[in-house]
Structures are given as structure tokens and as C-alpha cells.
Design a protein that fits this description.
The complex is a heterodimer. Chain A has 10 helices and 2 strands, in the order ααααααααββαα. Chain A is mostly helical. In chain B, a hairpin with a 3-residue loop joins strand 3 and strand 4. The longest helix of chain B is centred in the first third of the chain and has 44 residues. The N and C termini of chain B lie far apart (about 80 Å). In chain B, helix 1 crosses helix 2. The chains are: A mainly alpha, B alpha+beta.
Amino acid sequence: MSDKEPLFSAKNRKLLTNPLGSDNPITVQVLGICSALAVTAKLEPAIVLSISVMAVLALANVIVSLLRNTIPSRIRIIVQLVVVAALVILVDQILKAFAYDVSKQLSVFVGLIITNCIIMGRLEAFALGNRPWPAFLDGIGNAAGYGLILVIVAFFRELLGSGTLYGFHVIPQAVYDMGYENNGLMILPPMALVVVGIIIWVQRSKDKSLVESN
Amino acid sequence: MNTNSNTYTFLYASVMVLIVAAVLSFTALQLKPRQNKNKEIEKKQDILKAVGVTSTPADAEKLYDQYIVKAFTVSAEGNVKSEDKEEAFEVDLKKEGSKDLNERNLPVFVFNKEGVGEKMILPVRGKGMWGPIWGYISMEKDGNTIFGATFAHKGETPGLGAEIATPAFQDQFVGKQIFDKNGKFTSIILVKGTAKGNPHQFDAVSGGTVTSKGFEAMLLDNLGSYEKFLKSSK
């Protein structure tokens, strides 16, 4: 990649858009499933976590990309882990001091970010072999693809499980009076897996190139 | 330079750890006073919330000083141990919870506002699924009926155990009673589905069984330690 390449060349734009569709971290790379199950019972935490993952992933990608030629290959995973953990702790401490309300909302998610396989996956697969700017775009793109799926799953789980969206009641009382009930199963993690499965199914039946040939 | 040699690897790891440790501890030290202040304000907001007074971080301290007319600590026997408002505020429930019942300092906050009347606010603390859960319960002057309640948690699962921090869950405690008709301490126990109408039961959180059970134990243990004090204040 030459230095004269424009910031948003076709190749760089692909880094942003591919993870939203044909290279989605959750439905195609099958990474980050654990947090997709844990935090999608409601829309709000899903959105908050997506934004936090985006911040950490983009920064970690840039830092690892800057260090990529100095990192001893035998301890590269440890180095990546230290970078991610340090970033997450920093973000957590700063939020606690300056944006206490946000930090309360995030609560356990901040810790969950460290364990998110997408972050380690992108650092290992992309940041170690690319310049900082593409690595930054890759981080934003993958976090957006992750967030997209989280929001879709959370939308259906909150709507069918609690009858609310973003905490607001959307299913009118009249429907309940006619005998409709919230599906309690939607609140439990297994249904997140089923919803993710349905999304994968829909995506692959539209885009045959994603179907494995065996 | 050979980045794969043992010496380089060791040096790299050591320097990295030192830098990260320095950055993190510097940040933690610098931000500590601000974080503690935030926690203190949050505690004051929570105490006020238990009696239905909403406050912002900006006016919480003023409202607290205005409406919390006194605070003191009592023993499990119901005797007043200290009348100092600051001291009652500073009591660390985590430490008190691990002491013998007879040695505990139990804080009581007294709220008074024209038109609302005098309420007692009692702090509670227990274990959820992933970490501590806590809250404040305000009682009518009869020492039996709950006037309002607020609960919070360190890291319960969002959408499940974390629901204890929602108004929908907290509002159901209004009007519940912790002593039965014969004056026996019953606390408030969890049921699935239909706690409405029963003054000694609350609806558990669906999908949050462990949190709900911990919550029930918290009420039993904490309110239980105030039993004699509440009876004597009737």
C-alpha cells in the first residue's frame, strides 16, 4: 500500500463495509457470540456495548498496528492482551471519574469487552500486518458489523420478550387484553442463539457465496 | 534487530509491563478523589430516591442536607450507638455484614419534608449473582410499612438480575409490610407471578433466579437485624 493512497480508497472503504455484510464478525466469522447472547435481552445495553467495543477495538487496532514491527512473535498474544486490558481499564477509570452515569450503565460490560473474541481476532488477523489507518478502519468496520447484529437480535428479543423497545412500551395494552402474552423464553440466552441462527440462515440464503461447499 | 531472541522478548515484556503499570497506577491515583466524590454523591442520591426525592448529581448534596434531618447508628438490640450524622453515612455495610449481629453498627437515616412527613431510611446490602447488590428502604413511622425503596447492583446480568434496579421492580415494594398481623418478623419473600395483594411477598425477576434469591436473603438478613429497633420505635 503506497503512502499516496487516498484515505478512503475503494480498498479502505471495503474495510468498513465488508464486516457489515459478507464478512460479518458474528454471522460469518462466528466471533463474539458470547456477548451477543449475554447483552441482547434489551436494546439499550446492546447499543451501549457496541459503542464501547468500537472505541476499544479501533484504538487497540491502531496501537498494535503501530507496534507491529517491534512485537516479538512468541509473546504477541500476550502483548495484544495487555494492550486491550490496559485500554479497557483506562476507559473504565475515566468513565468512573468523569461520566459516572455512563459507567454505571456499562457496569459489567467493560469487563466483557476484554473477553470479546472479535478484538483479539482482529488484532491477530489484521492489525499485526497492516498500517495504522487501515487498521483503524478495520476496527470501526468490525465493531459496526458486530453492533448491527447485536441491535437486530436485541430488537426482536426486547420486542417479543418484554413488549418494549429501548424501554418504551410499544405493544398496546389492547393486544394484551385480547390474550397476547410476552414470550418469557425470548429473555433467556438460548433464544439469542436461535435469533442469530435465523439471521445467518437469511443471510446465507441471499448470498450463496457464503455457503460452505461440503 | 532479532525480535525473536530470548533477551529481546524478556526486555520487551518487562518494559511493556512497567509502562502499562505506571500509566494505570498514575491514572488511578489521579482519578481516585473524583471517583470517591461521585460515589458519595450517588449514595446521597440513592438515599433520597428511597423516599421518592429525585435529585441530580449537582443538587444531591444540598437536598441531602436539607431533607435528611438526622442520621444515627443503632445496635441489633435497638439502642442508639452514635448520633453523628457523618459517622452513620460513613458506615461500611460490607464490613458490618461480616461482624456478629450484636456488634454491628446499623445506620438509620431520618427524612423529613413538609407534606410527606417523617420516614426512616434503612440501608440493605447482600449478594447477587455476580457481585454485591444493595439498596435503601424507607419505612413509615410505624416501622412496619414500606414507603419506598431503591436498589442497585455492581454487575448483575442486564435484562435479567439487573432488573432489580428498575422502577418496575422497586415500585412493588411500596406498601409491603415486614411484620405480620401478630407482630412477628416475616420480611418479604419472593414468589413467581402473583405477589400483588400479599403484603409480605414480592415478584421475583424472570430469568434472574439467583439474583432474586440473593435479594430475598438480603432483605431477611438486613431488615432482621433492625427488628428490635423497629419494634421499639413503633
